[in-house]
Amino acid sequence: MTETTPGSAARFPFFNESTTPAGGEGWESMYPYYLVPSEETTEHENAQFWFADTMHWSRGCHPFDSIGAEAVYLGVGTFSTRIFALPVSLGLDVRVVNGYVYISPLGVEDPARIQERVAIFQERAGYYYANWDELYGKWKTKMEGAIDSLRTIEFPRLSEYDPAEVVTEARGRSSAMAVIENYHRLIDEFFSIWQYHFEFLNLGYGGYITFFQFCKQAFPLISEQSISRMVAGVDVLAFRPDDELRKLAALSHELDLNSIITGNSGHEAILAALAETTNGRTWLAAFEEAKDPWFNYFAEYGFTHDQETWASDLSIPLQGISRYAVKIANGEDISRPIERLRDERDEIVDEYRALLTGDEARQFDELLGLARKVFPYIEEHNIYVEHWSHKVFWEKAWDLARFLVDAGFLDTAEDMFYLNRFELDTALFDVVDSWAIGVPARGKKRWQAEIARRRPIVAALQAASAPPAYGIPPQQVTDPFAVMNYGVTTERVQDWLGASDGATDKLNGIPGSLGIVEGPVRVLRSEKDLPLLQPGEILVAPITAPSWAAAFAVATGVITDIGGMMCHAAIVCREYGIPAVVGTGFATARLTTGQRVRIDGKAGTVVVLEPAPETTHATDTAAAVS
């Protein structure tokens, strides 16, 4: 859906031209006012380009879950704009539209201001680059402390009378005060964690982009793939959970347990059967050892309250172990080809470095060294933030929800997530204050009625898909976060405009990982669909999460709607040697399971080789737009 007016370029619809899905009317009231487009901000919003952050919110978000949109983009804005002063990029503005999160890169165009910011950036970023290892070590300590702090948060039950210790220890205040205080701690700690997140991330992208731009200038014909392969083969923490699955699969084969591990029984039956034999108990001990911390890993990105971790749904890691066990039984090597990648990497580096002399060669070495130094953080921060800390955050949020049920304020724990964080603050005070006075909570019926109104609204929003973009396409996208993580480049936006006109024979995207492959596609919309993926199929998804690594042992190629050169799908596919095209914008909407395509991971193209079967196509299209 593009629009052309005299004298203007094609554009996407504006927010005020968007259509609310049937049943979703009134969604605006569920979120904090500053996340929702308004008449007051229309002029600003219509002047911007907005793209959907379906990487982190793959479906319309519950009111409470919008806290992530606040914390994430406060963090990226603060460090981009106010702390490190990225020269040509400010933060990312954020709105929620029909339940989906949209973000807008904000740039700096005034040459004088750019120069001012260059001086600040060079001084501050230079300090971090020069002391990267030491500061990164301190960052890990901060993150571990924040996670430990989250773990201490509790919401004590409101009993008929406060504990006697309030009197005997002369505390002078009710234990019920901890409910409100700990809620504030929970929220504040979450925001702090997202400040820590961006302390290093844009600098990581910046280090890689600087090397990337140097190579493009020094070697005009070099491909993006060749540049990315120069930093491949770096062993990072983010691969450790998948490595644990591989080790457990190898142990299963060694202990002759494959018939149990690869059986069709549910995960509880598999674990029970293993417990009956000596070898099975040996394997289970290794399985238990791997759980903490490596199974504290969301099947998606951990931004919503209803996502499972490997630890909370053991069928997820067991499925990955089973896939690897089958490969081992078939005589396949399941190890990551790290040595091969490093050999190829060094060969490419030597080839291009030989074309340089003197200062250029020294600069190449320095920038390559920096890119390799910062690369681990680009992947590892996900483990600490989106997985380990979010796991504890959502556990505590669920504890709070159960507290409200126990207090008689809510009917079910799920109800709490239909309130945004400010509404929940007032509800908690109502509960504690009413308990203190000895009267029923005054807002119980009010909020239960509002939750009943919102439940079908959220369902309607989640049933609809998110348009990829709104607003006016920029002449040039310069924000490093948008480019490297989301794959939103100037060229990609123009491709989206063309693709949105309905062309179905070809999709253009970011060259994620080298290789050409043909085959049938399997369209997966969430991690719950992963069991459907069959050997030889090309995985198509809005975005892949780090925890999908085992699926890459099955897929022959990967296509995503969103993502850039440094998104997880691109990085992992390069490490595993699987062709990938990311950031296509419309793959899940345009392609249908079973349809044959050819993907070219060097050119960044997806060519449809045959039309979708009529019956299947109709079903998938209905699902995509319902």
TrEMBL record:
SUPFAM superfamilies: Phosphohistidine domain (SSF52009)
EC nos: 2.7.9.2
UniProt cross-references to InterPro entries, sorted A to Z: PEP-util_enz_mobile_dom, PEP_Utilizing_Enz, Phosphohistidine_dom_sf
Keywords associated with the record: Pyruvate, Transferase
Domain named PEP-utilising enzyme mobile: residues: 534-604
One Pfam family this sequence matches: PEP-utilizers
One MF annotation (Gene Ontology) recorded for this entry: pyruvate, water dikinase activity
Designated name of the protein: Pyruvate,water dikinase
Organism: Arthrobacter ginsengisoli
